[in-house]
Amino acid sequence: MSIIVKFFMAPDDTSAALTLATGPGRACESLSFGNFDPEEAVVEWECLLVGGSFEELVEAGEPRIVAGEDNGGCAVFAISPGLSTALADAERPRLRDLAASWVQLLAEEGENIDTEIADAIVSDLAALVSSARRQRQGVYCWVA
């Protein structure tokens, strides 16, 4: 389980990878959260919003690691184009449904997250993705 999770905008993979050591700085528009596994979450969100299976997405290389350690150190990964599009295009009721489904999925796995927190994470990320699209940037996640 990650202690620090920061979703942020960057113009490209190279720029995003530069955040590995210290995380995205103040120059990057970002969101900070904690205490959930964002690598697993983005795959679950994509399954719930776009379709497909968790296994298929993982086998396809999602989430795509941009920089990081395999031994549990910091990592940076990209939010997939499919998830980005789905989040940006989702209306508020669909985002609430996504958050509720994610809470239920986590509960089935023995993890708990408050529905309001899950809703804030999903909604704030959708807003960040929309902003990134307008600025022709990608959305990445830094995990420590």
Outline the structure in words.
The protein is an alpha+beta fold and 144 residues long. It is 48% helix and 17% strand. It has 6 helices and 5 strands, in the order βαβααββαααβ. It has helices at 13-17, 38-49, 54-59, 81-89, 92-108, 115-134; strands spanning 5-10, 30-33, 64-68, 75-78, 138-143. The chain has a 5-stranded antiparallel beta sheet. Strand 3 (64-68) and strand 4 (75-78) form a beta hairpin. The protein is globular and about 35 Å long.
Q: How many helical stretches?
A: 6
Structural class: alpha+beta
- Give the DSSP E fraction (strand runs of 2 or more residues): 15-25%
C-alpha-based Rg, rounded:
14 Å
Nearest-integer average pLDDT: 93
What characterizes the major β-sheet? 5 strands, antiparallel
- Count up the domains: 1
Question: What's the gist of this structure?
Answer:
The chain is α+β, with helices and mostly antiparallel strands and 144 residues long.
List keywords for this structure.
144 residues, alpha+beta, five-stranded antiparallel beta sheet, 5 strands, 17% strand, globular
